[in-house]
């Protein structure tokens, strides 16, 4: 409160420039509040993303979804041993929103082995209504995967 009174006196002594200073101070205060709101939203979204991210587990995991379309490309990843990141081949499988439990309606696959197993199957699966079932077990480089296609 005392700081506010002192600041008001200083601004009044500046004459016409004082109005500009006062306006800049108000704008700064507004931007700081907006920045805090955005930081809180970022923290909330990061926490939500952590919950939605499929954890790498050593226990078996099964995914079942239909494929509407697919894209083969590259993706930048940042492994622990390469903090600057590296480009890896990726396969994005777009699926109906109902088939993806959370997050965007697609799966990004970077496992070379899994990409090699899926690529020959995809032309016959797209828009057929058939379900792709991925069975994963293990973790990291020991991860084992199997792919099966089930009719709709």
Structural class: alpha+beta
> What sequence of helices (H) and strands (E) makes up the elements?
HHEEEEHHEE
Q: For the largest beta sheet, what order do the strands appear in spatially?
A: 1-5-6
Number of helices: 4
Strand content: 25-35%
| Number of DSSP-assigned strands | 6
- Global shape: elongated
Cα Rg: 26 Å
Calculate the terminal CA-CA distance, rounded to whole Å: 69 Å
Low-pLDDT parts are: none
Instruction: Give the integer mean of the pLDDT values.
Output: 83
Main sheet properties? 3 strands, antiparallel
Question: What level of helicity do the residues show?
Answer: 25-40%
Q: How many separate domains?
A: 2
Structure description:
The protein has 152 residues and is α+β, with helices and mostly antiparallel strands. The chain has two domains: 2-52, no CATH class; 61-150. The chain contains four helices and six strands; from the N terminus they run H-H-E-E-E-E-H-H-E-E. The chain has helices spanning 2-13, 16-52, 112-118, 122-125, and strands spanning 61-66, 69-77, 86-94, 106-109, 131-137, 144-150. The strands form two sheets. It has a three-stranded antiparallel β-sheet, covered by helices on one side. The chain has a three-stranded antiparallel β-sheet with strand order 2-3-4. Helix 1 crosses helix 2. The N and C termini lie far apart (69 Å). The mean pLDDT is 83.
Write the layout of secondary structure elements.
Layout: H1 2-13, H2 16-52, E1 61-66, E2 69-77, E3 86-94, E4 106-109, H3 112-118, H4 122-125, E5 131-137, E6 144-150
Antiparallel strand pairs: 1-5, 2-3, 3-4, 5-6
Helix pairs in contact: 1-2
């Amino acid at each position: 409160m005392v700081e506010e009174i002192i600041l008001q006196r200083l601004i009044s002594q500046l004459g016409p420039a004082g109005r500009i200073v006062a306006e800049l101070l108000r704008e700064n205060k507004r931007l700081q509040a907006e920045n805090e709101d955005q930081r809180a939203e970022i923290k909330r979204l990061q926490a939500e993303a952590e919950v939605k991210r499929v954890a790498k587990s050593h226990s078996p995991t099964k995914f079942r979804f239909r494929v509407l379309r697919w894209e083969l490309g590259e993706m930048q990843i940042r492994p622990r041993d390469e903090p600057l990141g590296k480009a890896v081949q990726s396969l994005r499988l777009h699926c109906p929103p109902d088939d993806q439990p959370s997050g965007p309606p697609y799966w990004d696959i970077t496992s070379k082995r899994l990409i090699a197993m899926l690529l020959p199957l995809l032309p016959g699966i797209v828009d057929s209504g058939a379900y792709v079932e991925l069975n994963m077990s293990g973790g990291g480089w020991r991860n084992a995967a199997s792919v099966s296609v089930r009719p709709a």
